[in-house]
Amino acid sequence: MDNHEPSLQEYSRLYQAAKKIMDLKPWQWMWDSDIFGIQDPETGALGYYCVTGRNEEHFGVSVFIGSEGYYGLTSIFENPNFNPKEILDLPQIQFFLADRDELKKKDLDILKKLKYRFRGKQAWPVFRSYKAGFLPWFLELSEVRFMTHALEQLNELVSLWKDETERYINDEQGLILHRIAETTPEGITWHNTYRSVEPPVIKGPTYRACPEKIKTVLALPRSATVIELDIIKQYSMPIQDAGDRPYFGYLMLCCDAKTGMVITVNLMKPEDPLTLMWEKVPDLVLDTCIQIGSRPYKIRVCRQPLIGLMQNLSKDVPISIETKPSLKVTGNVFSSLDFFGNGSFY
Question: Could you say which of 3.30.479.30, 1.10.10.60, 3.30.420.230, 3.40.30.10 is the CATH number of the domain covering 211-337?
Fold first, then answer.
């Protein structure tokens, strides 16, 4: 996480670029499926534009980060039954227009310092960052700089493209336009190239377990207990610790499959990247064993990455791991608590 606050000059450049987009109104002729790329000149990372508002609902520009963002976005377009909450887990930075009462104090303070004022509904520029497990939040310094470049380059492109976007963003081979930056002694220059987007390499959490806890659990008697283990992200009560970005808690349940009793409950805080949170699961399972004073006969799981983590744990601690399409007991508990989502947000 970048803890450096953008300077007023950096905010000024960002808002100036946004004001030009507001004047050009690319959402009047572009569709949200008109996706093309831009390279961050500072990091080399790629982002993918999605201009929204053609349906006159949410006017704005999103930049989805990397191939993960690109393929996540295109999968949403291809799935008419997608859960709208899925968009919260796609890495992206957004500029959009909102009503004044939707702005936070920090938004208004920045506008006041810049001496900008807007009037009317959906007329106030807002910028937000999206990361898996967290609520939309203010842009960090690196994100302010990337969004500034993205909006400035979008201004350059749409001024030339107007009404002919489809003609430019794809070539005859179906390759996608990428706006590429090159840093020279004279500054940054930009050029267009067409390329495919390589599928993301999904890296799962690394298995980690405390050797001392493993030793303790190995010394426990083995029981006939069958544990159901599941984790779900809860949307109903976002959490904000002092000074931190607000987040959705991940609820980890261990239940007795026979009696239906809840054995342990852990509220887990997401980390960036989210794999760091998942890597804590084996130790929490070992803690559960220590708490009940025995080593269960079996642990049932129904989703990744829990399946992989428990299979690795079983190599250190002899516990049978059973995978099932769904879990009855934990499912009933989650339903009774009225938590939303399917728990596999990874």
Answer: 3.30.420.230
The stretch 322-345 carries a mean pLDDT of 76
pLDDT value for 144: 98
Helix (H) or strand (E) segment spanning residue 262? strand 262-268
Residue extents of the structural domains in the chain? 8-195, 211-337
Give the span between the Cα atoms of 229 and 285, in whole angstroms: 9
**Alpha-carbon torsion, ordered 288, 289, 293, 294, to 10 deg:** 150
Q: How far is CA 250 from the centre of its chain?
A: 14
Burial class (CB in 10 A: 0-12, 13-18, 19+), 133: buried
3-state secondary structure of 105: helix
What gap in Å lies between CA 131 and CA 325, rounded to an integer? 28
Task: State whether residue 130 is helix, strand or coil.
Answer: strand
Angle, CA 41 vertex, CA 38 and CA 43 arms, to 5°: 100
Residue 95 has which token pair? 């500029």
Q: Is 16 exposed, middle or buried (0-12, 13-18, 19+ CB in 10 A)?
A: middle
pTM for the full model?
0.90
Q: Tell me the C-alpha distance between 307 and 312, whole Å.
A: 9
Beta strands 320-323 and 92-98: pairing type? unpaired
What pLDDT was estimated at residue 346? 34
* Buried b or exposed e, range 166-195, using 16+ CB within 10 angstroms: eebbbeeeeebbbbbbeeeeeeeebeeebe
